[in-house]
Design a protein that fits this description.
This protein is an all-alpha fold and 198 residues long. Helix 4 runs parallel beside helix 6 and helix 4 packs antiparallel against helix 7. It is globular, with a radius of gyration of 19 Å.
Length: 198
């Protein structure tokens, strides 16, 4: 693994050479996120309200993935960490993701439902508002679980493959989380509002 001194002594061009391939990969994955959203154009057209909450879900997935990544890199950078320690960490982080997802997803559901009922779409009807809030709550739960798992498993895989997890893991996890989160979010809304979307 790269040490602090290695990072300090490394030339600018060597740093760029290490990072640029990952940035090209992430650019491609970022474009894939945009293509996925464009595939859900009928959902966005029928339910423009969903766009207001998209960043909420993507940001929370990114935040939880980053938290998990930081803990994982700290654990795996210790040379005394065993395979048993890594397995224990992965299991723990999956549990943390599930519980955080349940808590944040439930709070999001309640807050969004109240916001819709009393501020944004009070005339839309209770069923409509419930479906929007459900889309957000379940998407939040699923995205946080996936983000926590990715934030733990991806750096472990990179370390095994002799790739510096500090350079590659963070941006890759964020971009993969975006792809998964928008797929879950708009896919679930499509299912819940199938009759409205057609």
């Amino acid at each position: 693994m790269t040490t602090r001194q290695d990072d300090l002594d490394e030339s600018v061009f060597k740093s760029i050479g290490k990072r640029m391939p990952w940035l090209f990969i992430l650019l491609g994955l970022g474009l894939m996120t945009s293509l996925i959203i464009s595939g859900f154009e009928p959902v966005v057209d029928a339910l423009p309200l969903l766009v207001f909450f998209q960043s909420l879900i993507l940001d929370m997935a990114g935040n939880t993935g980053t938290q998990s990544l930081a803990v994982t890199i700290r654990v795996i950078s210790n040379e005394q960490t065993t395979k048993k320690d890594v397995a224990k960490l992965i299991l723990k982080e999956l549990k943390v993701g599930l519980l955080n997802g349940l808590i944040i997803g439930s709070i999001s559901f309640c807050v969004v439902l109240l916001f819709l009922m009393f501020v944004k779409s009070k005339d839309a009807g209770m069923i409509y508002n419930l479906k929007i809030a459900t889309s957000i709550g379940i998407s939040m739960l699923a995205s946080i679980i996936v983000a926590n798992a990715a934030g733990t498993i991806i750096p472990v895989i990179f370390k095994k493959c002799k790739v510096d997890p500090a350079v590659a893991s963070g941006p890759l996890i964020t971009t993969l989380n975006d792809i998964i989160a928008v797929s879950i979010y708009y896919g679930l809304a499509w299912i819940l509002f199938k009759t409205l979307i057609g």
